[in-house]
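In response to reviewer comment 3 from the previous cycle, which asked for concrete evidence that the modeling workflow produces usable outputs, we include below a single protein chain processed end to end. The sequence was submitted unchanged, and the resulting C-alpha cells are shown without manual editing.
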Amino acid sequence: MTLSHPARLALVPLCLVGIALGGCSQYVKQSDFNAAISELRANDQKQQQEIDALTQDMQQRFAKYDAQITAMQGRISVDTAAHFAFGDATLRDQDKPLLDDFAKVITQHHPDAVITVEGFTDPAGSAAYNKRLGMKRADAVRDYLVSTGGLSADKVRAVSYGEAGNRQVEKGQIREAGAGNRRVTLVVDFAGNATPTS
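The workflow returned the following C-alpha cells.
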C-alpha cells in the first residue's frame, strides 16, 4: 500500500519522537553521574594518600642510602636504585641492601603495588646495543626483587630506556664520567591498598 503525501508527512514527527526516545536511553541520570564522579574522586584521593604515605615511609627508610625519592602524578620514583660497571649488567653487592629494604617495605605494607624497573645506559655503543644492555640491567634488578625480595613476579615488570638522551643524568658522558647514566630506577606505578603496620 502506498501512503499519500500527507500521511508520509504525518509519520515524520512520530519517527523523530521514536529516535529521540531511543537516544534518551543512552543518557545517564544526573544523580548517577554525580555518584560515579564522587566515587572516582574518592578512589583518586585514597590512592594519593597511599602514595604519600609510601613516599614518606621510603624517604625515612632510605635516607641512609642518599636515594632520591620523588612523588609524581600518582607514582613514586626511587632514582638510582642500582649502578652498573661500563658495559656490564651485574648487580653490585653494595646496591642490594637498598633493594632489600625496598622489597621489605612493599611486601609488608603494599603487597598489591605494581612496580616498574627501568634500565638505563650511557651513550657509548649503538642504540640497539644499549637498549639490550638496559634491559639486562632492569631484568637483573627485577629478578633480584622477585627471587630474594619476595615480590610477586606478576607485579614487577622491567623496561629499558637504553641511552635515552632525555633521561641521562650525565648528558652525553660515558665510562667514568657517565657512571650516573648506568643505572636502574624503581617506579611504583600503583601503591595498592596499604596493609596496617603491626
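The first helix runs from residue 5 to 24. We consider this sufficient to address the reviewer's concern, and the full set will be provided in the supplementary archive.
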